[in-house]
Amino acid sequence: MAGACAAVGLSAAARRAASRAPVPVFPVAGIGARREMDDLLVEPRLRIVDTPAAANVLLLAGEVPNALVAELALLHDGLSHPRTSLWWTLGAGVAPVIPFSVEVRDSDPSALVDAVVDAHRRLLTGELASSSPQLPDEDGAPWRGVGPYGQGGTGMTGGVPYGRPMAGVAPDRDGLRLDQLTVRIGPFFARFPTGLVLELRLQGDVVQEAQLVLPPSDVPTARVASTPFSDALHVPVRVSVLELERARSHLRSIASTLVSHQLGSLARRVLHLARQVRPGDDEEVERLHRVLRRSQILGWATSGVGHIASDRLEGTAAGPILRASGIARDERTDDPAYVGLGFEPIVHEGSDARARLAQRLAEARHSLELAGRAGDIDHDPESPLESPRGRLAADDLPAQRILPLIPALLAGMEWGDAVSTVVSLDLDTDEVLAMRATDSEFLVP
Amino acid sequence: MRTYLAPGVAVASVAVVMAVGVYAVAVIDGIAGRLASGAGRIGVSVMLDPPRTVALLLMQRRHRTERADGPGWAIAPALLGGLAATALAVVPVARGTAVADPSTGFVVFATAIAFVMIAVFLHGWSPNSLFPLIGAYRYGAQALSLQIPFLLAMLATALPAESLAVMDIVEAQGDLWNVVRQPLGLPIYLVVGVGVSFWGPLNLPDGADLVGGTSAEDAGTDRLAWEFARAAMLFAVAAMGAAAFLGGWWGPLLPGPVWMALKTLCLLVVMVATRHLVARVRIEPFVVACWTMFIPLALVNIFVSGALLL
Predict the structure, then answer these.
(1) Which chain A residues have a beta carbon less than 8 Å from that of B125?
(2) Which of A294, A392, B151, B220 is the most exposed place for a label (fewest CB within 10 A)?
(3) Which residues of B touch A274 (CB under 8 A)?
(4) Residues of chain A found within 8 Å of residue B56, distances taken between Cβ atoms
């Protein structure tokens, strides 16, 4: 009897302790939610995890496109018990297609964190039932009983038993014939923007071939959430507002780079800065630069990674990516508002991940300095517009020009470098989710 | 005369020391993380978060993948933890005080380090999933390249002692610590030691680019056991570093075990902090650096140490 009491007391104590630990959350940023989701990294009461298996809470934010329903269900079923899903609306009108237990309408992050912590506590006490699987417990495709081993291929390789491509054999970069694995990464791969799907042929750690997988063009395109830059296409917007937003966008991109290089604590520091920074705070970015230099993130970690030949960047107007390859192309030089401020584009040489990171750091600093002295000058909607990711116009999104670079860029890379390369392109989630397969070179699922 | 503890006492003392070491790793990691993120205030939560996380992982149910290798999945963290315990057992705490002090203590430690590769590979192989498998293969390349300089750097410390017993290696540092006698040794040992415990910049098998690598499918007690074993291995490497390079129990005023603890803590802080200060290394340049830089440097270290003794 005493033993049973002790056991009950112990389990209650364990539950209390567990409910005070940072809650493991797997985030899915929908349309217009990337910024808020990135910022959750600084919340001490949450632990943003990279895989669904490590998480108890699936946090959906913004509008998660209905086209991703199958992948979302698979993601949900990969979560560990006890588990639940939350939806942070962030102004989106269309609810996610999988069930969620809590809907948070308040856009204040602390309200969201309270809701997540509370939901997790209720999960632990059993008040909230762990959510049941969305998919039936059966194979996605039948085992195909052809071929010498019944797997549907020839010899001991090939075929797609249970819908999964078996490893094939192909020569590797040293001329040896080794196993080649065909896999799909995405659309919820933690290091990539939501919706980016790559079909890869991997040999060990090396990407032999990469292809983009885009939804077919008849899937309705989701709207792109409004930002100061999308507003600036239609109405006059203060230059100081645009430049502050640019600096913040660049800082968030730098934070993602740091996370992908296993420097989560430094990423938190950068995100804090992105939240607090005000026009004229360019000295803060300079201080950050010194910290980053010590970490080698501007050294061997990115040096020579993801080099893009400058002829392949022709006509992409890809903003910092282009300027990091030594080409001084910036829409702001043709904008009368910026000409008045004496704007000169910043350029870096190298065209690799290191140059792109250095470029964004320098531009963030420059933007804060510009914002500090722009006063009440407005950007005219008739003038060309340079977003943080390059030229922006109606129906002309930077991601449409940058994404097609990826397949050729990744071929032959180690996977670690491939991730660094994609992260260094700073793709916008909303723009990626708006992409459709219009070209035959893109694979349609 | 070699002394051995009774088996029960030996297991218990290693378990206690390991638990303390793992807790130290978690707390140092929490403090370093908060300092690096510029979060400012370091509150009592740094001390409480590790036990709370343990409680959370105990409440989380284990995750199972399709056609996983169940026994392998369970054995891998046990193997890694067992290897850490074996490595820790031969580290002397004070003169004449060690859980085990065989005349081949160095070889025991080296063997434990060499087997880490099997534990990591098994851990990546078992879930029958993409990222764990890539992590497993990746650690094969990493471990093969860094274990040779690791052991060469350690082997040099056996030369002045003219013995493979760790107790003798510490004893021989009474007049001069090996860190001074062999200035190349400790830096090589620490760099590759971080790699052996796949921590921070050298955490390639469980890296962020593989969204957790070999532990990507781990949940609940699986994750807890793996994290525990990994931290224990880091602690064992730090403890052996303190014994082999920083003179173990030697030091003025304070009693030997206190010196040993302080030195271990020092190395632990350096190794744990790398996670918050240095970016992930790229596997290929790292492997090249191991073969073309660390191995030759470690050989030079051995030759110079040997020549000085002649």
Answers:
(1) none
(2) A294
(3) none
(4) 17-18, 21, 24
pLDDT digits (tens, 9 = 90+) for B65-111: 888 899 999 999 999 999 999 999 999 988 888 888 888 999 999 99
What is d(CA B233, CA B86) in angstroms, rounded to the nearest whole number?
A: 10
Greatest Cα pair distance, chain A, in angstroms, is 83
d(CA B176, CA B187): 17
Interchain contact, B39 vs A51, CB within 8 Å: no
Burial of residue B53, with CB atoms counted within 10 A of its CB: 0-12 exposed, 13-18 middle, 19 or more buried: buried
pTM over 0.90: yes
> Can you read off the two tokens belonging to residue B186?
């400790």
Q: How far is CA A242 from CA A295, A345, B124, in A?
A: 30, 16, 46
| pLDDT higher than threshold 60 for residue A161 | yes
Nearest CA in chain B to A10: B55
Q: Tell me, what's the ipTM? A: 0.93
Write the residue in B35, B60, B141 that is nearest to A80 by C-beta. B60
For residue range A195-246, list pLDDT tens digits in order: 899 999 988 888 999 999 888 777 776 666 778 888 898 899 999 999 999 9
Q: CB contact, 8 Å: B140 with chain A?
A: no
The whole-angstrom distance between B51's CA and the closest CA on chain A is 8
pLDDT in the model for residue A95 = 83
> Which candidate, B207, B203, B190, B202, places its Cα nearest to that of B271?
B190
Residue of A nearest to B219 (CA): A54
Closest to B63 (Cβ–Cβ): which among A42, A44, A80? A80
d(CA A225, CA A93): 12
Look at residue B228 in the predicted model and tell me its pLDDT. 96
Q: pLDDT of A279-334, one tens digit each?
A: 888 888 888 998 899 888 998 899 999 999 888 888 888 889 999 999 888 999 99
Query: DSSP characters for A187-223?
Result: SS-TTSPTT-EEEEEEETTEEEEEEEE--BTTSPPPP
Chain B closest-CA separation from residue A339 CA (Å): 37
- Torsion angle defined by CA atoms of residues A153, A154, A158 and A164, in that order, rounded to the nearest 10 degrees: 20
